[in-house]
Design goal:
alpha/beta; Spore Coat Polysaccharide Biosynthesis Protein SpsA, Chain A; UDP N-Acetylglucosamine Acyltransferase, domain 1; 2 domains; elongated
Length: about 450
């Protein structure tokens, strides 16, 4: 059987006026990546033959994002924004000749593969089906167009809410804006669209009436859930979509064997990876690029980004792990510790109030409270190497580049500027001096000065 050629056209030229932003609407992030990237990942799972993204002029950020898509993408520019029908027509040079054309909206980024597969299957169910439209049943249908079906269940037309009668507004099946169209008939149907509406635009939804007038069949198919079909036109809707996506990611994490002590307070990135028997505390935020291996623990109020944590490691509470941090088996990163571009070897401990950046901490080493790796001189970054089993005393400053040998001790309060040999003790602090009676004399002098000031004020008053 000959494979049917599938072209996907994604409409992404919207400026997002209601976002009140200089950023193209589809570049606003959800779970750490632009919404257009979420949609392209789903499209890739359909194994399409061609993908066309219709953009607007002057969208360089979007153009860059499309170069990183998981599938080859062709971009066409809709120089004049004359409606959704016109936007699809703009893609003709690339999409022409396909058996099916799947039209998606860049601001409906969370639609799942199952819903799109249903839509394509509905179009391919019979040769006479010209258009299949994805529908949904939101709790509140206000603002959505309604899908009107006949007694035979076929789609007859799409009516916008402003044009709907009171009876039509009671219809729960709403238009999600996504369509699968017979590629052999699409371009002729688009040619029949007319800008006879308040905006003077060519509406893709009018293709239903054009198809019906030509005696063709149109179908409506429901998506798996209304939440995945949310359209994003404002910051409020962006937040709603983020909430839905986070709920999906949390459920997936728990389904795969992680424990979330307070799921609603944990925020994932799109690519967060958690192993089995991982325990995540309350108010933990994962930025992009985090992997937590089996049995690791992230305690409350931590922020991780670009980090790998191995089995049995414990992070936090109140820790910030920045990109490039690798925490090995059984290591511990404690409260109010910040790491960046740091390798923490197996069994090492950085438990309190420390900054470890551009550094390596050897197996079993202990970094005391208040320790800082001074990695930046105002111009360049340099590395600190702490050997296996080394002990760094509290409130030490390690001035990079510097190496602390295996098994070495650094005395508390030291400022280390030179390498320390293995198994040696480094003391780099001022010599302690003691002046007997100084404190008592100091207090007496201060008390006398205070009394004199008070006497002067009394005399003046």
């Amino acid at each position: 059987m000959t494979k049917q050629v599938l072209a996907v056209v994604i409409l992404a030229a919207g400026l997002g006026t209601r976002m009140k932003s200089t950023r193209p609407k589809v570049m606003h992030p959800l779970a750490g990546r632009p919404m257009i990237s979420h949609l392209l990942a789903t499209v890739a799972s359909l194994d399409p033959d061609r993908v066309v993204v219709v953009t607007g002029p002057d969208m360089p950020d979007l153009a860059v994002a499309l170069t990183r898509a998981p599938i080859p993408v062709t971009t066409v520019v809709q120089q004049e924004r004359r409606g959704t029908g016109h936007a699809v027509a703009t893609a003709r040079a690339v999409a022409a000749g396909a058996d099916d054309v799947l039209v998606l909206l860049g601001d409906v980024p969370l639609v799942g593969r199952e819903s799109l597969a249903r839509l394509i299957a509905a179009r391919r169910a019979a040769p006479e089906v010209a258009v299949a439209v994805l529908g949904m049943r939101p709790v509140d249908p206000t603002g959505y167009g309604r899908l009107l079906t006949g007694a035979d269940g076929m789609l007859e037309r799409i009516v916008e809410e402003l044009d709907a009668s009171p009876a039509e507004r009671q219809i729960g099946l709403c238009n999600a804006g996504l369509m699968a169209i017979d590629g052999r008939r699409l371009w002729a149907l688009l040619a029949q669209l007319q800008p006879d509406n308040a905006k003077g635009e060519l509406y893709l939804t009018d293709i239903i009436q054009a198809a019906r007038a030509a005696g063709l069949v149109c179908r409506a198919v429901e998506g798996t859930s209304a939440d995945e079909l949310i359209g994003i036109n404002s910051r409020v809707e962006l937040a709603q979509a983020e909430g839905f996506l986070q709920a999906r990611l949390r459920a997936a994490a728990m389904r795969d064997g992680a424990t979330l002590l307070d799921p609603d307070s944990v925020y994932f990135s799109h690519d967060t990876r958690l192993g089995r028997d991982v325990e995540i505390g309350q108010n933990v935020v994962f930025g992009p690029g985090v992997t937590i291996a089996d049995g690791a623990q992230v305690r409350p109020f931590c922020h991780l980004e670009g980090v790998s944590v191995a089995s049995g490691a414990v992070i936090g509470p109140f820790a910030r792990l920045r990109p490039g941090t690798v925490v090995a088996e059984g290591a511990r990163i404690g409260n109010f510790v910040e790491t960046k571009n740091a390798a923490i070897a197996a069994g090492a401990k950085v438990n309190h109030l420390s900054y470890v950046g551009d550094a390596s901490v050897g197996a079993g080493a202990n970094v005391g409270a208040g320790t800082i790796t001074c990695n930046y001189d105002g111009f360049d970054k340099a590395r600190t190497e702490i050997g296996a089993g080394a002990f760094i005393g509290s409130n030490s400053s390690l001035i990079a580049p510097v190496k602390i040998g295996a098994g070495a001790f650094v005395a508390a309060g030291s400022v280390v500027t030179e390498d320390v040999a293995p198994d040696s003790l480094a003391v780099a602090r001022g010599t302690q001096a003691e002046k007997p009676g100084w404190a008592a004399a100091f207090r007496a002098r201060k008390a006398a000065e205070k009394a004199a000031r008070k006497a002067r004020k009394t005399k003046q008053g």
